[in-house]
Amino acid sequence: MTQDGLKRTDLTYKSSGGAGYIHRITSCEPGPPVLLVHGSFENGRIFYSGKGKGLAPFLAQRGFDTYSMDWPGKGKSTPPLKKGDLYGQTDFIKYDLPQCFEAVKEVSGRYPELLIGHSWGGVLLSSFLVRHPEYTRHVRALAYFGTKRTIKVQHLKKWLGVDLVWTLLGRLSCLIFGYFNATFMRIGVENDTAASYRQIASWVVKDSKWIDPVDQFDYAQAARNVTLPSALYLTGENDAYLGNPIDVQSFIDESGPHPHEYHVCGKSTGFSHNYDHVDILTRSSAVEEIFPMIVRWFSEGSS
Question: For a disulfide at 214, which of 90, 104, 186, 283, Cβ 3.0-4.6 Å?
Answer without folding.
Answer: 90
